[in-house]
Amino acid sequence: MNNDIDQMHFLVLHIGEACCRENWNYKNICSPFTRIYYVTKGYAQIELPDKKQDLHPGFMYIIPAFTTHSYVCHGEFCHYYIHIYNESDHDILEDWELPTEIRTANEMLSYIRKLNKLCPGLELTQTDPQYYDNSPALTRNILKNKQRELYARVESRGIIYQLLAEFLHQAQPKKYVADERITRVLAYIRTHLNAKPDIEALATLSCLSKDHLIRIFKREMRMTPLCYINKKRMEKAQLRLVTELTPIKEIAYQLGFEDQAYFNRIFKKTTGLTPMNYRKAYHNQTL
Q: d(Cα 38, Cα 59) in Å, to the nearest integer?
């Protein structure tokens, strides 16, 4: 596991305070960024793949990137929301089992209010994720974030670290697999998503034959090494399509795909949309 904090290059995409009611009922949301909530008033629920999480005032909550979830709200619900995105090649939050809920000290709300002031213009104008997840506003917000004064960017990053530290303090390392050889392979894959897949090289790294590696990998991960590599590359592609204007062909090439048609097929199989249609929908949305 790579615990290097140099892999933590977080940017704020959205931040603000909201009071919602029955309109905060959205299903099967899955975003390429991490969400943090601090509840100030009322009650709601988040339905996660493995549980229903009650949301209460005075608590902070986190939903990691690419976690499918739904919102349930039947009355007044007030909260601060923070959506963050890691610029580094590998998001080290993936390597930790984070607690969904933590009780926070009073100063944590002060930090969030301070972060909100340091990030003007990044509040949402829509509560429906289908708008703000696939909107040119995401690209604009990234540019706004990077163009702020240096002191604001430094202080903002410090506050984000502080918020994440609250969750990491109670986190446990993820145990993906029992076999250390596969652990080494997973670590290598996650830091080399831009390279063309080389199963022979992975076999050498794990000191296994190619066929033996595939058998053990499939037993531990319930998919082949190539399927896993493509899964992680498609997650990266989704994030880049949301946050960049890079041509699709270039994104495919930079993720190790020499054949754009093959990239398109894998992307559609994963998301239900071709990269072109995904981007077209993204650019046609308005806040």
A: 6
